[in-house]
Design goal:
Four copies of one chain form a homotetramer. Chain A is α+β, with helices and mostly antiparallel strands. Chain A has a single domain, classed as Chorismate synthase, AroC fold (4-Layer Sandwich), CATH 3.60.150. The first copy, chain A, is 26% helix and 22% strand. Chain A has eight helices and 18 strands. The radius of gyration of chain A is 21 Å and the shape is globular. Chains in contact: A-B, A-C, A-D, B-C, B-D, C-D. At the C-D interface, β1, α3, α6, β11 and α7 of C face β1, α3, α6, β11 and α7 of D.
Chain lengths: 357, 357, 357, 357
C-alpha cells in the first residue's frame, strides 16, 4: 500500500520519477475562494530549482509549473488543484552503469527489495526531484496560511560543524544567501568548508530551523495527530532528514521541570508565555508562541569518492558516482521544509474547524 | 476533526479520559489466526502500571485489561479487537482547585482554546493515562511482530545529564531496573539525581532508545510514509517527547558523506551493511540492519514548586501542583515507545503485502 | 485490511461479535459542546432491541449502553465517545451444531474463505447484533443533527408484496407500530402475511424509506463522496440490504428529462424546487428539498424450513436452522437506517465546514 | 473537506474541470510489476469518447492519454501513475449566458451554495467529462484484474421503457452497438425511441447492468466496506445514477427466504451456489458466483425544451439550454460503470491480502 498522499483535510498527492516525463502534485481540500496564480507557486519552485549557486547540482530544469485544474478566474474552486512540472534535462545515460549497483546511503537496495525492480535513472521516485511536487503543493498551503496571517520561514542553522549560535537570527537575511545562512560570519566559514569538501568529492549535512508565526492556540489534535507529531512526520519524510526536534528538543531531556516549563503570563489582556522552551506546542496543540523546530540533514549520499558496495547479485564492487549531484542538500531543502510545514499547518487549521459545535 | 486513530492497515483507535469510567483501544486490521490471550496484553500493561517504584506516581491502578471482541478460541478473528481498562483509583477532588488555572507545560490552555472547555480531572485525555490504551494495542502489534520473528526493545539511554555511552548496551538488563537503565553505574548516578530532584519538588527528563531486529529490507513507503517518518510521528505523539532521531540523527548533520554512508557488503550470501549510521533505514525503507532510534523526553511538567501562571480569565496567579505525579516519566514511557514502534512496524509490514503483483 | 470505521470527520468504529462479551462503538470527531446523556442513546437502542413484538427474535438483551468516555458534565468533550453494550443472553450451544455447515444466504462461507475460520456462534460479527453498535453511534449523530434542526425519519414502505402507495404517509404513525408501517390498512395485510410465513418457518423482506428534513443546500462532495453515494454505501452496508434508490430511483430510468427535472422556483425569497424527483440531491449535493431514499431488504436468511447446503469439507448436507431468529428484519432495521443516515449526514455537514475560505 | 480520492489501498484521485486545461487521475497503490502500456488505457477512453454515434454529444475530444509517471519499461513501478488528458475542444462561450442561471437537474445551485461560486463553463467539475479521469484510472484497475483472471463487463439493460428480459444476454454483443444493447430487437425499439426524444429536445434514462466473473470468494470487508456497499458507493458516485441493486435487488424485498436463499452445492469438488439471487455477495463478501449489479440512470438533465428555473438572485426565469449535449448518457456510462467496478474490486482484492496471518 504505497500511499503518496499527505494530510487528512488539506491533502497533497505527489507523483513523478526523476527521469520520467514529469513530476507534480494534486492538492485536494483547498477551500474555495483563495486567490491563487501561477506566480504564487512559481516563486517557491524557483527557490528549490537546481543550478542557482556553485553549491548545487548542475542539472538544468526550468521547473515551470502549469496549473491544470482547480483554479478559475484566479481563485481556487474548492476542487483538486493539479500541478504539473515537466522534466526537461534528463541525462538518463549517466545512470545506466549503476543500474545494477546499490549506491551506499541511497534507496536503491530498498526499492529492489520492495518492488522487485526500480527506475534506476536518477533515483526514480527517491530522487530529490520528488520534492518539486511538494514545493508546488506547499506553495498553495503557504498562500492559504498567508491569507490567515501566518508566516513560515526556514533557514540554515548549521552546516557541518558551523552553527549560528544566536537563538533568534534575522531570518530575512537567509533569502539571498546561497547557503540560506542569515549570518555573515557563519556563512563565510561554512562556504569555505563546503568548497573544500567539494574538491575532495565528498559531501556535507546540516541543520535547518523553521519558525512559524501567527498561529492561534489550540491547533493540532491531542492524541496521535499532535502538531509536533505531524510536523515530525512531514519533515522526516523529506529525503535526507534524520532528526527532528521541537523547541528545546534534545536539550529539554537534560533540563529540570522548573526550567523547562514556560510560565503563562498576561500580555495586554492576552494569555501568552514568558519563554518558549516548548517551541510553541503543549499537549500537541499550538500554545500561542511561535513554532520553532529543527531538522537534521545527513550529508548527500552521492559522492564521487570511491566507495565499497555490492551489486544486485550480491557481488562486492567499488563504485564511483558520476553525474551531477549536490555536495550538500541543505540550502535547497530549506524551501522544502517550509513547504511541508505549510502543508501540515494548513491541514491542522482546517481540521480544527470541526472542533466545536 | 479529532482523529484518534493511528495506522492505515493495522489501525489503532484509543479512547478514554484519565478520570472517566475507562480507557481503552480498538485494534482493527489484525490478520486472522494470530494466537492472542489476555496475558499477552497484560504483561505490557503491567510494565506501564504506576506505583511500581519510588520514582513513579503513587496512583494505584490494577490496569487489568478485558478483551471485548475480535478473539475466539485464543486466536484473532480478523475483526476489531476492543480492549477495555477500567479506571479504578480516581481522586478527582485533587483537581477541582486547578479547574480554572493553566498549569505550565500542560495541555490545559490548548484544550480550552480548542474545545471551549475541558475535563480538568487529571488532564482528561491529555493525561499520561491515555497511553494505557496505546500499550494494550501495542501489545497486539508486538505479538504479531514476534510471530514474524521481529523484536522491539527500548531502554533509557539517559536521565538528565547521565547517559550510557556504550553504543550497544545489553538491553535485557533494563527489564528489572526501576529506571530501565541497562548499566549499573549510570543507574546509580541517575537514581541519586532523581531522588534529589524529588526532594526539591522538581522533575527530570531523559532519552529513550529503541532497537528493532529481524525486519526484512524494503519495509516503509518511499515518499510521505517513510519508515523514519512514521516512527517519528508515532513517537512524537507520546506526551512528553520533544525530539526524535534515527541512527546517527543530529550527529549525522556534522558528518561527511564518506563517513556517513554505510558500505554494502556480502555476508554469507546475504546483502548487508558494514556499519549502521543510517539506523536501519534508507530512502524511508528498512535496509536490513537493526532499526535504531532515540526519543528526547522533557521533564514532567507537574512539579510541586510554586510556578507563575494565569487562570482562564487571564489573571496572573501562582500555582503549586498537588496530587500524585511522576518526577520523571522516562521509565514508564519505555514500554509506550515499544508499543508505538510495534504499531508502526505492524502497519508498514501489512501495507507492504500489496507492493508487488 | 478489515476496516470497521465509517466516516472521514465524524468517524464511527464498531466492534463486537454476537456471542462475545460485548458489542459497541467508538465515535470520534463529534464536536465539543454537544449536550449528550445516556438516555439520548438508550432510546434508539430500545427501538432496535429484540423481543418487542411477535415478529422478532425471542433473544433477550437489555442492550443497556454505557458511555465510557468523551462526555463530561453531560456535554461532549471533542474526544472519542466509547459506547459499550454487554451481550447478556448468549445461548452459544444453539450454534455448535452448525459450526461446520454453511447456512444458505449467510456470511458463513465467506468468513471461512476470507479469514480461515470464524466465530460460528450466532454469526459472530456478521450477526444483526453488530448493528447495536451502529445504532448507539448513530444516536450521537442524530443528536448532533437535531442540534442543527435536522430530522431523520424512516419507516416501512412495504413488506413482501404489501406496499404503502401514498407518496408521503404520516411517518409519525410508524413509531408505535410493530412493523413500523404508518398505514393501518397495509399494516393489517402485512401482519397477516408475516404471521402465515412464520407458521411455515419461512421469512419475508421489504422496503424501508427514509426522509431527512432541514438540510441546507450544498452538503455532499461533488465527485466520489456524493451525498447519494455515501448514503448508498452506508445503507448497503446494513446486513440484508440489496438495493438502494434516491428520489424516483429506478423509476427515473424510465422518465423523460422534461419530467424528471425539478424546476427551481422562488418561495418567499428562498430558492426551492417545485417537485422532488431528485430526492433532494443534485450533483451529489443536497438541493434544499427533503432527502428521500429507499432500501430493499431481502428476507431473513435464517429459516427453519429444511434447506440444501454443504459443510466446510464440501459434503452436501441438509440444514434446519434452529435458534431464535427474526422472521423479518425490516421493522428492527428501520432504526438502523436512521442511524446510518445520521452518521452520513453528520460526517458530510462537518466536512462542509472547510468548503470555503 | 472535498475528497476526490476513491479507495483505500488501490487509490484513485481525479482532477480537472470540463473547460480547464486538462482532466486526469493519479492512481496510487498499483502493485509493482504489472505490464501496462498507453494502449491499455486508451482503449477504454476511446469507448467513453464523445461523438461516436448519433446518440451522443457532438463535442470533439481526442481524449488521448499521457502516462506521466509510475511506469518504467512498460511495467508499473509501484509508485503513483499520473494520467493526463488534455481538453481540446472547449467552446466556453456556449456557457456564458447561463453563468447566473441554475439549470434544472444540474449541480449549478449546489456548487454555488457550497463554494460561493463555480466554474460555470460546461459544468466545471460536475461535468460528465470528469469521468474521463475515472475511465483512465479504471483501465489500470481492469488491467490488474485481468492479470488475476477477472473480467468486468457492463451493458445497457434498458433504455426508457425498453428492457432486455433475458436474464443472461450475450454481453459481447454490446460492444459494437451504439446503445450498448446486446439484443437486436430491444436495440431497434430503443433507438427509435431515442430518435423521437431527440427531435423533441428531450432526453432519456436507462439501466446499466454489470457482470464480474472470476472473483474468488471472501473478497469484501464484513461490516462497513461490504463488497455491495463499496460497489453501491462507487456506482452511485457516477453523475446520473439514482439507484443501485445487487442480484435480485428490489425484487428480493418481495421474495420469501426459501426462494431467495441460494443453496450451496458441490460442483466437481468446489463449493458453489445453485442459483444466484444474491448477485454474488453474502455478508458483504464475494460468494464465488458472478457479481451482478444494476444501476438506474436518470435522463440527461440538459434538454433544449424551455424550462422554468431561477437565476442566482432568485428571480424566476425561463431557460433553453443550448450547446452540445447527450440525449441519453447511458451508452457512454457503460464503460464508466466498468471502470468504477474495476477500481472497487482492485481495492478490495488488495485489501484482502492482509486478512490472514
Amino acid at each position: 500500500m504505497s500511499d503518496n498522499t499527505y494530510g487528512k483535510v488539506f491533502r497533497v498527492t505527489t507523483f513523478g520519477e526523476s527521469h520520467g516525463p514529469a513530476v507534480g502534485a494534486v492538492v485536494d481540500g483547498t477551500p474555495a475562494g483563495l486567490p491563487l496564480e501561477k506566480s504564487d507557486i512559481q516563486k517557491y519552485l524557483d527557490r528549490r530549482k537546481p543550478g542557482q549557486s556553485e553549491f548545487t547540482t548542475k542539472r538544468q530544469e526550468s521547473d515551470e509549473v502549469e496549473i491544470l485544474s482547480g483554479v478559475f478566474e484566479d481563485k481556487t474552486l474548492g476542487t483538486p488543484i493539479a500541478l504539473l512540472i515537466r522534466n526537461s534535462d534528463q541525462r538518463s545515460k549517466d545512470y545506466s552503469e549503476i543500474k545494477d549497483i546499490y549506491r551506499p546511503g541511497h534507496a536503491d537496495f530498498g526499492f529492489d527489495q520492495k518492488f522487485g525492480f526500480r527506475d534506476y535513472r536518477g533515483g526514480g521516485r527517491s530522487s530529490g526531484r520528488e520534492t518539486a511536487g511538494r514545493v508546488a503543493a506547499g506553495a498553495v498551503a503557504l498562500k492559504l496560511l498567508s491569507s490567515f496571517g501566518i508566516t513560515v520561514q526556514a533557514f540554515t542553522r548549521s552546516i557541518g560543524p558551523f552553527r549560528i549560535e544566536d537563538p533568534e537570527p534575522d531570518i530575512s537575511k537567509a533569502a539571498g544567501n546561497p547557503l540560506c545562512i542569515p549570518d555573515a560570519g557563519v556563512f563565510e566559514k561554512a562556504s569555505e568548508y563546503v568548497e573544500n569538501i567539494m574538491k575532495e568529492g565528498d559531501s556535507a549535512g546540516g541543520v535547518i530551523e523553521c519558525r512559524i508565526e501567527g498561529l492561534s492556540p489550540g491547533i493540532g489534535e491531542p492524541v496521535f495527530d499532535k502538531l509536533d507529531a505531524e510536523l515530525a512526520k512531514a519533515i522526516m519524510s523529506i529525503g535526507a532528514v534524520k532528526g527532528f526536534e521541537m523547541g528545546d528538543g534534545f536539550r529539554a531531556a537534560e533540563s529540570l521541570g522548573s526550567e523547562n516549563n514556560d510560565p503563562f503570563i498576561n500580555v495586554d489582556g492576552r494569555i501568552a508565555k514568558e519563554s518558549n522552551h516548548s517551541g510553541g506546542t503543549l499537549g500537541g496543540m499550538s500554545d500561542g508562541s511561535p513554532l520553532i523546530f529543527r531538522a537534521a540533514l545527513k550529508p548527500t549520499p552521492s559522492i564521487s569518492k570511491p566507495q565499497k558496495t555490492v551489486d544486485s547479485s550480491g557481488r562486492e564492487r567499488e563504485i564511483v558516482i558520476k553525474g551531477r549531484h549536490d555536495p550538500l542538500i541543505v540550502p535547497r531543502a530549506v524551501v522544502v521544509v517550509e513547504a511541508m510545514a505549510g502543508i501540515v499547518i494548513s491541514d491542522l487549521i482546517l481540521r480544527n474547524r470541526t472542533a466545536r459545535i
